[in-house]
Design goal:
Elements lengths: L7 H27 L4 H20 L3 H18 L7 H22 L9 H11 L11 E6 L6 H8 L2 H16 L4 E7 L38 H29 L5 H28 L1 E3 L1 H4 L2 H12 L3 E6 L4 E3 H22 L3 H6 L6 E10 L2 E8 L6 H10 L5 H5 L3 H5 L22 H11 L3 E7 L3 E9 L5 E8 L2 E6 L3 E6 L6 E3 L2 E6 L2 E7 H5 L9 E6 L4 E6 L1 E8 L12 E6 L5 E5 L1 H6 L4 H11 L2
Parallel strand pairs: 4-6, 11-20, 15-17
Antiparallel strand pairs: 1-2, 3-5, 6-7, 7-9, 8-9, 10-11, 10-18, 12-16, 13-14, 14-15, 16-17, 19-20
């Protein structure tokens, strides 16, 4: 039940506006740390927090008002020159903005948020009193034993440092006497908790996105649309209405027997005009779903900054192309993959400042996040100037972890070796930490990108850095496909995977190691017949081959014939989706066309259950 009776609509407006304000404040705080003497920037931050406090006060959100008031006073002292920007001070301010965002989460569920962490309030009060921030806590070592039970002595020493010196020897004896084997040492960020906390104690910083997964976020069900776009939709709707009236008049004339040449010509013109208007209306409606990726990118400078501070690195995240537009639903689904990629760039790609200086680099590393529209796709790139990736080292690591055998590893070229980081369980870290080491991050990234019908590619030069490119369609509502035929049935394959169509002539298919192949421009490519992938019996010899390329492989898809390119709206198959089928659509003659998921289909090649299920589905 809502705790804001009668003010639910005002609460939603407050959350929408304040969330954007807080994101803007976070971004400006990142800029303020670089330009501590920019008073105009400081005034903007002050006004943002003041606006959030005012809205919270109107809704009687006392906990948020108290926190914002203290933070606002801190900004006021910065404006007056009574305090100076420092890393410790910025940590406290960012903890405050993070706490306000947590309170937004409680408000989104129509309940009053809990009070801010007392340690955070104490740190803000200490800052306001002019006391210096406490030094950040040193990482502690958490020891796990073979049965996954914690070492209680080590845990006690980490929590109560005063007892560490006096109990060190007995603790070591206890560990030595215990009949267990230490399985692994896990480094975790932990703040020591003294018996009497000093007044200026700073709360332990929360790791940004710690672990290998981030908590699920609630998707927004609202969207801001430029009124110009809505006016365009309204105007096109009016034009379509006028064209409909014209068609109705022509229909009446034809029913009355007026089938003269002028009438038929007018009918053809009206239908052509309607076709153009419907296409324009479709594009206009799709444009209302498009949002700038800057709304997504603006979260990452703080993520990179917090993680770099946690790891003792110096990193600057530079963003460009924020105005590039992408479908709103795709922006929401793209968040987790990009979080992983930014975190990996900071954690794996960037060296420690001392290591960078030793090889002649600047101590502060540069991570670039860019977006641009290329044709009907959007290209997002994450580039760093770190250590890069060594193909031979990746190959050896994959063999050590048992992910591939030595024979397979030796057959991989440099490009394929870089793709090894996407294997489940692959990690270059020898120790598991709160940030990485479990080998699930990049596997999740590739899976999520493929769900969006996208592709991910890696280029890396050892010692110079790494560039990861993500290519995505602008929208998932309409999918460009190539309609092909096999076994007298039409199927659609994503056009993003299609490179070219070649005729299959007699004798062009040759066997290599017992497998059918075709040579295309001096490259030997394996042949997969669509009928065999579906588990059906071929009704004729394939007449054409579709050169298809995915993130991991290139192959020739042998088909009977092809119909052509089309833009389709995919309808999901609820509760009856067989393996290898992404959805269904209707052709111009009203027949059902199944849209194939090629990656899924290749993994289940020759499965008769797939073929039987497809037969049942088509016959529905």
């Amino acid at each position: 039940m809502s705790e804001f009776g009668g003010m639910d609509e005002l609460l939603q407006d407050f959350l929408m506006e304040s969330s954007e304000l807080l994101s803007d404040v976070d971004n400006k705080l990142m800029d303020l740390e670089k330009r501590p003497h920019d008073h105009a920037l400081l005034n903007d931050i002050f006004r943002g927090f003041h606006t959030i406090k005012g809205g919270a006060g109107f809704l009687n959100v006392t906990a948020m008002v108290n926190l914002c008031h203290r933070t606002e006073n801190l900004f006021d002292k910065l404006r007056n020159g009574e305090l100076q920007i420092s890393s410790g001070l910025m940590d406290v301010i960012l903890d405050a903005t993070g706490s306000v965002r947590d309170m937004f989460g409680a408000l989104s569920q129509a309940r009053q948020p809990a009070d801010a962490d007392p340690a955070l309030i104490a740190a803000l009060d200490a800052m306001l009193a002019g006391e210096p921030p406490a030094a950040p806590a040193q990482p502690a070592v958490q020891v796990l034993v073979a049965d996954d039970t914690p070492d209680w002595n080590a845990l006690y020493q980490a929590v109560v440092p005063q007892a560490a010196a006096s109990s060190a020897a007995p603790a070591q004896q206890a560990v030595a006497a215990a009949p267990v084997v230490i399985a692994e040492v896990v480094t975790a960020q932990a703040a020591p908790v003294p018996v009497e906390a000093p007044k200026a104690a700073k709360p332990a910083p929360k790791p940004s996105g710690g672990g290998n997964s981030s908590p699920p976020s609630t998707q927004e069900n609202t969207i801001r649309i430029d009124t110009v776009r809505l006016d365009m939709v309204l105007n096109l709707s009016g034009e379509i209405g006028l064209t409909k009236n014209r068609l109705t008049t022509l229909r009446t004339e034809i029913l009355q027997g007026n089938t003269g040449q002028n009438t038929l010509r007018s009918l053809d013109e009206a239908i052509g005009q309607l076709d153009l208007l419907v296409g324009d209306l479709q594009n206009a409606v799709m444009s209302t779903r498009m949002q700038p990726v800057g709304r997504l990118f603006q979260k990452y400078p703080r993520l990179a900054r917090d993680l770099a501070r946690q790891l003792g690195k110096e990193v600057e995240l530079v963003i460009s192309g924020e105005e590039t537009e992408l479908d709103k639903t795709m922006i929401e689904d793209l968040n987790d993959p990009l979080v992983h990629l930014v975190r990996n760039a900071v954690d794996h790609g960037i060296e420690q400042p001392a290591d960078r200086i030793a090889v002649g680099k600047k101590p502060q590393a540069l991570v670039q996040l860019t977006a641009e529209q290329v044709g009907d796709h959007i290209l997002i790139e994450i580039t760093d100037d770190g250590r890069g990736m060594n193909a031979d080292a990746l190959r050896r690591k994959a063999i050590e972890k048992g992910l591939i055998d030595a024979e397979t590893a030796n057959s991989l070229d440099e490009k394929q070796c870089l793709q090894l980081i996407f294997l489940p369980g692959f990690s270059t870290k020898d120790q598991i930490s709160s940030v990485s080491g479990r080998g699930v991050g990049m596997d999740v990234v590739r899976t999520n990108i493929q769900k969006l019908n996208g592709r991910i590619d890696i280029n890396s030069i050892p010692g110079e850095g790494t560039r990861i490119s993500v290519s995505l369609p602008l929208t998932l509502a309409i999918l460009p496909v190539l309609v092909v035929r096999a076994c007298n049935q039409a199927f659609a394959v994503p056009l993003a995977m299609v490179r070219e169509i070649i005729p299959i002539e007699s004798g062009s298919i040759q066997e290599v190691s017992g497998r059918p192949t075709i040579v295309v421009r001096d490259e030997i490519l394996p042949v997969r017949t669509l009928s065999s992938l579906l588990g059906w019996e071929a009704t004729q010899k394939p007449g054409f081959g579709v050169l298809m390329q995915s993130a991991e492989r290139s192959f020739i898809l042998a088909i009977d014939s092809f119909v052509g390119r089309d833009d389709v709206v995919i309808k999901p198959l609820q509760n009856i989706r067989p393996k290898g089928v992404a959805g269904a659509t209707l052709s111009g003659d009203g027949s059902v066309v199944l849209v194939l998921d090629m990656e899924d289909l290749l993994n289940g090649e020759g499965n008769s259950l797939i073929g039987n299920r497809l037969h049942e589905l088509i016959s529905l």
